[in-house]
């Protein structure tokens, strides 16, 4: 047993523990040849407060989404009669009818679209997703307004 103790560098372990204390790390691991030393401490009090500020940030967009929902409530009544030809949102996000602010929209009521043609963009998690027309036809209704929030499955436009 006396032969094994000189192989473990206790000063190294103390140094690693001091590094944990000085840097607020929760774990540190060092590996040299066949020796691996991991020093960790219990508990992560820093992680719990970080989760708390995310809740108010999540609630803010939900409150902002209430106002546009009232503006879209009238067209939602029309979606029932055209639901079989409606193109629905494939994801939750913000719908944009044009490729850039002030640019000409991708589609307009009365326009003819081809299958695969971009009809609008949905921004989800800072990613712009082009939404293609699922079939060719004529755009008869556009339910969504530019820069409006959309929910998964919400009717966007009608292509007949």
Keywords:
alpha+beta; 4-stranded antiparallel β-sheet; disordered N terminus
Fold and architecture overview:
The structure is a single chain. The protein is of the alpha+beta class and 160 residues long. The chain has helices at 10-23, 47-51, 54-78; strands at 27-32, 35-40, 86-88, 93-96, 112-113, 118-124, 127-132, 137-142, 148-150, 155-159. The chain has a 4-stranded antiparallel β-sheet, with no helix packed on it. A 4-stranded antiparallel β-sheet has the order 7-6-4-9. A two-stranded antiparallel ribbon has the order 1-2. The longest helix has 25 residues, at 54-78.
Order of helices and strands: HEEHHEEEEEEEE
Strand order of the largest sheet: 3-10-8-5
Shape: rod-shaped
Structural class: alpha+beta
By DSSP (H or I, 4+ residues per run), the number of helices equals 3
- State the major sheet: 4 strands, antiparallel
Helix content: 25-40%
Poorly predicted runs: 1-5, 44-82
Indicate the proportion of strand residues. 25-35%
Straight-line distance between termini: 85 Å
Number of strands: 10
Please, what is the average pLDDT? 76
Q: Radius of gyration, rounded? A: 28 Å
